[in-house]
Amino acid sequence: MRARLRECTGYDLPSEERTARQQRNLDDILAVTKVPERTLESHLRFSVFTFQDIVHKRLGDRNPFTNAGVRYSGSHDDKALNAGVERFTADPTAERDLSYDSDLTGKVRIPVLTLHAIGDPTAFVEHEAAYRDTLAGAHRDRYLVQTFTDEHEHSGLSTSEYANSITALDRWVRGGDKPTPRSVAASCAAFDRTYGTGCFYEPTFRPSSYASRVEPRPGGTAWPAMTAAQEKAWSRVGGVGIAP
């Protein structure tokens, strides 16, 4: 896979060593997928090998994914892209089984405090918008406080922030002292005196919708993606879910 990606895009070459065709291919892929260049290969591995495992090993060769009705944009020729891109439609039972196994109902009953880097190149920060809308759709967003930092990694954020956020969550759980993004940001300095790794909270940040980052599938903008009623109904279907 790496060799094919290099041949197509020259992604791991200095820009001056890429051909004009490679550079255009790379520019198109990054613009359409909105994937950062430094994590293009890892995202491609997810889409190839993880999805392959789900379809062939977990769902018995049934495909739960679709791009029917999706219009891609951002390339140098979107008309040609949308005319030529391969289209897939989902098997309804596979879609149901994957949803039952992995989608969230939003019916949380305990405090949830999130910490997410705004520049996360793997799990895009817009996932937090989907999570927020999921809990709001289930009328449980009172249990959610989201915090964001001006960092650019998926994991390995500031130790000061980890210690600070865990402490804020502990106080909320034990004493009912619900934090706010501003209060979490303000309390970080005390922990940074111990750990010295910096505090990078952005308390006014709010991520854009999930659909602003991932082209929505038809019907794919309603949250939660699986309601509690759907989960209950599907639980009565024999063998529902994906294979372990």
Describe this structure in words.
The chain is mainly alpha-helical and 244 residues long. It folds into two domains: 2-99, no CATH class; 103-236, no CATH class. 45% of the residues lie in helices and 5% in strands. Strands 1-2 form a two-stranded parallel ribbon.
Brief synopsis:
The chain has 244 residues and is mainly α. The protein is built from nine helices and two strands; from the N terminus they run αααααβαβααα. It is 45% helix and 5% strand.
Q: If strands are numbered along the chain, what order do they take across the biggest sheet?
A: 1-2
Number of strands: 2
- Mean pLDDT across every amino acid position: 96
Largest sheet: 2 strands, parallel
- Strand-pairing-aware structural class: mainly alpha
The radius of gyration is 21 Å
Strand content: under 5%
Q: Residue share in helices?
A: 40-55%
**Helix and strand sequence:** HHHHHEHEHHH
* Anisotropy-based shape: globular
Number of helices: 9
| Overall tally of structural domains | 2
Low-confidence stretches: none
- Intertermini distance: 26 Å
Topology:
Elements (H helix, E strand, L loop, with lengths): L1 H8 L10 H14 L6 H19 L19 H7 L7 H11 L9 E6 L9 H11 L6 E6 L9 H17 L5 H15 L32 H7 L10
Parallel strand pairs: 1-2
Helix pairs in contact: 7-8
